[in-house]
Design a protein that fits this description.
By secondary structure, the protein is an alpha/beta fold. It contains seven helices and five strands, in the order H-H-E-H-E-H-E-H-E-H-E-H. It has a five-stranded parallel β-sheet, covered by helices on one side. The model has no long low-confidence stretch (mean pLDDT 93). Bound molecules: iron/sulfur cluster. Iron/sulfur cluster binds next to helix 3.
Length: 187
């Protein structure tokens, strides 16, 4: 079995177009027999899109908020804190509440609560959890969070607060952890 998988992977990475085309056709056939033709896409709110297909018209629909402002201890190679420049800064629980209140008053659906990282690889969410819970209970907004590395107290707090989703990078390679994410952790 593992020989079969190894040779299939080898074919996928090294096969010629002629060898791969029947595989693509088979994959398309299997996909169409199991799924519909509908493709759902999400345009992240931290970037403004204006194209022939989609134009973002409501900045309050689902904005991204940074609880660390423009600060981040990691400065990853693929970001260098640039992502944070596109977010609304809310560096205290009070600022986060005011931001979410405004989103709610403007008819927004929810917020992404994100931010830069501590040297331990986590977004410093702990002090904001009571406010996140209040946003869920009093404003009814959808709340998704960027957690970074998840530590137990934050996981428990976010679960208790009732967040709708948590997003984090799954990093499967030691060199990527060190050289790209600048993290002194293990896979
Ligand atoms: S931790 Fe996040 S905000 Fe900081 S540099 Fe990396 S991707 Fe950007």
């Amino acid at each position: 079995m593992s020989d079969d998988i190894d040779s299939l992977l080898d074919l996928c990475f090294n096969g010629s177009e002629e060898e791969l085309t029947p595989l693509f056709e088979k994959a398309f056939e299997v996909s169409r027999s199991r799924f519909s033709n509908v493709l759902a896409l999400h345009a992240p709110g931290m970037v403004h899109y204006s194209t022939d297909f989609h134009t973002a018209t409501d900045p309050y629909r689902f904005p991204s908020v940074s609880i660390s402002g423009s600060g981040c201890s990691l400065s990853c190679e693929h970001c260098s804190r640039k992502l944070l420049e596109t977010m609304i800064p809310a560096t205290t629980p009070e600022m986060l509440w005011e931001t979410c209140l405004k989103v709610s008053e403007k008819g927004g659906e929810g917020v992404l609560i994100s931010g830069g990282s501590t040297p331990k690889g986590n977004t410093p969410l702990l002090d904001f959890i009571p406010t996140i819970k209040r946003v869920k209970e009093d404003l009814g907004l959808d709340v998704v969070v960027h957690t970074g590395v998840v530590y137990p107290d934050v996981a428990e707090g976010l679960g208790d607060a009732g967040v709708d989703g948590a997003m984090l990078d799954i990093i499967g390679d030691e060199a990527t952890l060190r050289e790209v994410y600048h993290l002194d952790l293990h896979v």
